[in-house]
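User: quick one, fold this
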Amino acid sequence: MTPYEEKMQKAIDNLVADYATIRAGRANPHILDKLTVEYYGTPTNLQSVANVTVPEARTLMITPWEASMVKEIEKAIQISDLGVTPNNDGKSVIINFPELTEERRKELAKDIKKKGEDTKVVVRNARRDANDAVKKQNKAGELSDDELAGEEEDIQKATDKFIAEIDKLVDAKTKEILTV
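Assistant:
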């Protein structure tokens, strides 16, 4: 895999990770992936200090390894932008996810499309950088004009492949969000 294809693949991997954190009305432990809690003065990933389970379709249960962490976890969830209210039973934190309203679903669909477009921009920037690099090689005499045309064609094919993959991801996530 060429360096520009690696950049394009990383952009898609980031998009997939972003989409995993968007909730579709069901409890998904991945929405907590970016959440950090204060653990002995150090910001620590939530999964490093607690066990996250899905006891029911719309409920997440976070059971910390240390009971003293319950308050910290609850506070981290409240100040996050998850839009949910945690409940604390003393031993664990429970998050109930309400049914998404139609308006919220449409908002999320717009956000999904925007993230897809942002990823396409990253892929196109990688294409531009790759084309600039092969043009420099051509100017320096390292590539003939025919080789340059072949390289540019390969770069465009790779770009088209990654853009199509982004479109598929956007469509799949949008369909998941809009399905009631």
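User: anything notable?
Assistant: The first strand starts at residue 36 and ends at 39.
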